[in-house]
Amino acid sequence: MPLDRFWAAWRQQYVSGTIASLNAGDTGECVFCALSNEEVSEASGVVYQSETTFVVLNAYPYGSGHLLVLPRRHVATIAELSDEEYQDYFLTLRHTVMAIEMAYGADGMNIGFNLGVAAGAGIPKHLHGHVLPRWGGDTNFMTAIGETRVLSESLAATWQKVHTHF
Predict the structure, then answer these.
(1) pTM (two decimals)
(2) Strand partners, 88
């Protein structure tokens, strides 16, 4: 069976244009580093913090409940984490999965990393993992054909829902 292709030529500007070069470079302050200094609050979107790791709402979520798990220190790869940071990071990742499961009761879960520009990282200089609940049928014509995501709740509602489980 041949692989079907869905051409999204509009993505070319993102992967090779000004946005990509800004995110790939070391210009300006890293948005994740700025967030790592924020307090846990609905206003900041930071849901949880430890000494070396934090969890924040994805400002551009794939779906409701989409969270990011990040080291507080500015590193680009898993290999750059110290042993202490690595252990805390993956314990926080597990805790994040459990919090989303309790908050949403979803049919499934996506956990993923885009390491580097070629892998699709929008901000490749600061390691971050994605955790998001999934449901049967949550990819529909709006996403596939309309190039539009339908989010059933606000970021504030997501924060309230998941924060109670941290």
Answers:
(1) 0.78
(2) none
Residue type for position 40: V
| Contacts of 109-117 spanning 24+ positions with Cβ under 8 A | 109/133, 109/134, 110/62, 110/134, 113/78, 115/76, 115/77, 115/78, 116/76, 117/15, 117/20, 117/23, 117/24
Scan for tokens 């609940």, then name that residue.
133
C-alpha to C-alpha distance for 82 and 135, rounded to whole angstroms: 35
Going from N- to C-terminal start, the domains of the chain cover 32-163
Q: Given pLDDT bands bounded at 50, 70 and 90, which one contains residue 135?
A: confident
Hey, what are 119's tokens?
């892998």
Structure tokens at 108: 């499934």
Question: Is the distance from CB of 36 to CB of 70 less than 8 angstroms?
Answer: yes
CATH number of 32-163: 3.30.428.10
Q: Are 117 and 20 in contact (CB under 8 A)?
A: yes
The CA dihedral of 166, 39, 33, 89, to the nearest 10 degrees, is -20
Sign of CA dihedral 55, 56, 61, 66: positive
- CB-CB contact of 166 with 55 (8 Å): yes
Residue 14 has pLDDT above 90, yes or no: no
